[in-house]
Structures are given as C-alpha cells and as structure tokens.
Amino acid sequence: DSSDDIEDVSLFDADDDVSRRSKKSKIRHPVASFFHLFFRVSAIVVYLLCELLTSSFIACMVTIILLLSCDFWAVKNVTGRLMVGLRWWNQVDDDGRSHWVFEARKVSPQGSKTSSEAESRIFWLGLITCPMIWVIFAFSALFSFKVKWLAVVVMGVVLQGANLYGYIRCKVGSRKNLTSMATNYLGKQFLRQ
Fold first, then answer.
1. Number of domains in the chain
2. Residue 110 has pLDDT above 90, yes or no
3. What count of other Cβ atoms lies within 10 Å of the Cβ of residue 31?
C-alpha cells in the first residue's frame, strides 16, 4: 500500500528513560516481559484444561477471549514499545482513508542498544510461537469436528496473528522500502563486479 508510513520517532521519551537505567540488568522491563507471556500462555492453558475444570462452554469461551483481548492490547500498546521499541496502529484521515502507521524507536546518538537482547528474544519467541500453537488448535478443532471451539480458536489466530503481522511490518518496514533496499543492494553488488 502506498499509504503505509514508516516513521523513525522517539516513543514517549523511551530513549531518555532507558539511558538512565542500569546496564547490568538483562531484562530492563520485567513486568512487561511477564505480562507479554502471561496472557498468551494463560489463554492456551485455559483452552487445554477448561473441559477438565468445568462443563460450561460459555465460561471457558469468555475467559479465553478475555485473556486473548488483554494479550492483544498489552502486546500492541505496551510490551512492543517497551521491549523492542516497535509500535503500530491504524488511523483514518479526514477524507476517510485508512493509514497504517508502523514506528520504530530512534537509535540513540551513542549507538547503544536501548532494548536488551533477552527482552527481544522473549518478545519475538512469544509473538511467533503462540499464533503457531493457535493454528495447530484450529486444525485440531476442525478435524475433530469441535465446531463450537472453532470460533474460539479462530479468535486466537486472528488476534495474535494481527499483532505478529503488525510487528513484522514494523521490524522489516514497508514493501516500498524493501524494494528500494533490494534494488540498492543489487546495484552495489553489480558495481563491485
């Protein structure tokens, strides 16, 4: 889309806050790291164990969807910004056109990393692994003819897949930037030879 924007901005003065913290700590945001995994893993555990714990499908469905919604909000609005310095959202302009905005934290002038390696690993591992588990659950529900669970599993795939897609676009950039990067790289390789 030509309406996609990649902005290199400081996210709520995160650079100043991180530079003041001790560099000894591998995980700079332990609460964010905990909640990044807590809601995701809790939704999966409740899905696996809910038939053993209760016979009420509605209670299980509501609990799982609430956990998935809390996860979507926490990852999109808090943990992505704190743990890896990425943020995305959609805004509609006055003409009614939708614009997707993907942000990445500015690199600090000293060239130091503002997010830790451990937090980055936790973030991306949780972001990639959990949607894959929900896809496996979707095929399992489909092939075992558990149609009532299929709606819950589709919500898991959609909510966690949307965050995965948004953060991959933040990390990699828009398609036009990828095309220009590939063209520049191939041009440099051609000139070298």
1. 1
2. no
3. 12
Give the largest CA-CA distance in the chain: 69
CA-only gyration radius of the chain, Å = 20
To 10 degrees, the CA torsion angle through 26, 31, 35, 37? 20
* 108: DSSP letter: P
Exposure on the CB side of residue 161, measured as CA atoms within 13 A: 11
- 148 in a domain, yes or no? yes
Please answer whether residues 36 and 123 qualify as being in contact, where contact means their C-beta atoms are separated by less than 8 angstroms. yes
pLDDT, tens digit (0-9, with 9 covering 90-100), for 135-191: 999 999 999 988 899 999 999 999 999 999 999 988 887 555 555 655 666 666 667
Neighbouring CB atoms inside 10 A of 148's CB total 9
Considering the domain boundaries, does residue 109 fall inside one?
A: no
Q: What pLDDT is attached to residue 12? A: 47
What is the CB-side half-sphere exposure of residue 32 using CA atoms within 13 A?
23
- Is residue 73 one of the residues assigned to a domain? yes
What residues contact 147, with CB distance under 8 A and at least 6 apart? 141
Beta-strand pair 98-105/5-9: parallel
